[in-house]
Amino acid sequence: MQRLTLVFALTQVILLAGCSGVQTTQPGVVGVDRTQYMIDSLPARELNGAYAMAYAKAVRRAEAEGKLVTESPVGRRVIDISVKLVEQVPAFRLGAERWGWFVNVIDEDIVNANCGPGGKILVYTGLIDRLALTDDELAVVLGHEIGHGLRDHAREHISTKAGFEITGALGSSVLGAGSLGKTLISKSLDVGVGLGFSRRDEVEADLIGLELVARAGFDPRASVSLWEKMAAISQGGGMPAFLSTHPSDRARIKRLNEAMPKVMPLFRAASMQIEQREPERYHLTQDDHH
Q1: Residue 29 — φ and ψ, nearest 5°?
Q2: Residues with catalytic annotation?
Q3: Alpha-carbon distance 85 to 59, whole Å?
């Protein structure tokens, strides 16, 4: 019965809202080439705009509480690593380097980070401090989150959720496309927490992040030590926020190790050029509310 209900809900998405198959990214050497399905009534522009407003509000709140540390040494460290990773995004999505990328760091003992729609990155100091992250490990976290952004996983997640929202609205035909999009966005966006992506999404973000890390000259093998640290901290009691949506297990580490031969040549090539390279500074800054 549950299966039939799900099929019915997804059918309503196609009939009432319209659904299009898209390729948001190029496969890269890691081979992420799944066709995604996005609801037509939720344009990326609308979602990105809504998230940008929510993001700016979260940043202003952190600033008012004295917790915004983007301009501190730890903040500059996060931005410097992010810049190098964003330089590499054209390998997966041409033009994404020109998104309105923003990076902010909040001083809270929370093990979490995310990259929202349109390139809005948020990192908590608890992630860096409690895991004692190296630059390579921090790059892995950021690359993973950027991978979610490049793949439009948030929009895809909301599109899937739309099946249940639309089915619930079948008794009323007053919801127009724009109204539907706003309703879904308002119910789904939670800046700083994450959307709880599927395991499939997590695998894709892992692989894309791994390649971005290697292309940027960071050691992709740090992905293994990162997730080993994540597993250790989860066993210590109290599930960190990051792990509630990013499970660390043997299968994950196994997949990363299996992908390593594909990305290590990129890392070696980047390492040879790293000393001569002066990365262009993209517009990664404190926030966009000024």
Answers
A1: -75, -20
A2: 145
A3: 22
